[in-house]
Fold this protein.
Amino acid sequence: MTTTLITGIGELVTGDVERPIVPDAALVIDGERIAWVGEAAAAPDADTRVEVAGRAVIPGFVDSHTHLVFAGDRGDEFAARMSGRPYTAGGIRRTVAATRSASEAELLANARRLVAEARRQGTTTIEVKSGYGLSVEHELRSVRVARELTEEVTFLGAHVVPDGAERDTYVELVTGAMLDACAPYARWIDVFCETGAFTLDETERILRAGAARGLGLRVHAGQLGPSACVRLAVELGAASVDHCTFLTDDDVEALAASDTVATLLPGAEFSTRQPWPDARRLLDAGVRVALASDCNPGSSFTTSLPFCIALAVREMGMTPLEAVLAATAGGAAALRRDDVGRLLPGARADLVLLDAPSHVHLAYRPGVPLVSRVWSRGSDT
Ligand code: NIG
Ligand code: FE
């Protein structure tokens, strides 16, 4: 196996709890893993050497929430919202129609293009949900496509009740034949628990059915208003509650006392003109927070975690370091992974070189393409 020494790192964000930032650092990659991290002056020899001239290196981003398997465009809805229309869950059905009409090859090509776009912006681990098929055949296609791209596949048959379906019959399908077909491709099950989507009771039935099939739990909750689903998710041991735009004090307390991560999705608030989630309130209460893109054609059509970091710092009360850690180690925690999201010996060699001296520039220089080189499993090609 060849080893590579990356040296001259002006600032290394390791994500280590004890020492999250090392100045004047170096790092050694051995194959797909990190072998050594520390001060450049103490670095061991390696087969090859990369000199980065004082620039910053951070962990590759872990985007724990995306909906990349879809076809079609909903830019018209975005434009209507910018002139005052509210966001509703109903737009999902438009994407369902476009997705069903596309071929599996088209869906795969579109999702692959978005994964590549995300990687160019520093994302090295990505979760991908189904949820725009909403029939056994079309959800199965979606999880198959997602599985081509990532090991972090989430079955979201419970996105909305599709046109023409009766609620109870559809919930039976999601917890029965659709789950049977999709579970072999998925690691997670998710439910959109919201007005216009699924009720608390339906959500509980669906999550319990997924858990019985061995899937880990995640939910969309508190996007459009406060929801008892946050506490349900905590009680059921969900890995993550996503959105958390509206939370009661009891929700925050329950999250703080649990292992459930609160995943904030500022791209959705940007694109729907909703209030910003209060990251500061969560962090001060001791809640584990992640930042993710929620990339989807309806409510958040961005793959850029640097953009989400800038929003979180400017609008949600996070420091630049808290935001970077939420988009790396926080995303890893939301996926219950300890092999990604941190730059420590033994971790996967997923790292990003910034064209900047510090991680602060990700928020300080918003909209600027600062990601200059990305290594994923030790490879930068
Ligand atoms: O996370 N909230 C549910 N699902 C997506 C939106 C999907 C859509 O509007 O197409 C979200 O925001
Ligand atoms: Fe989502």
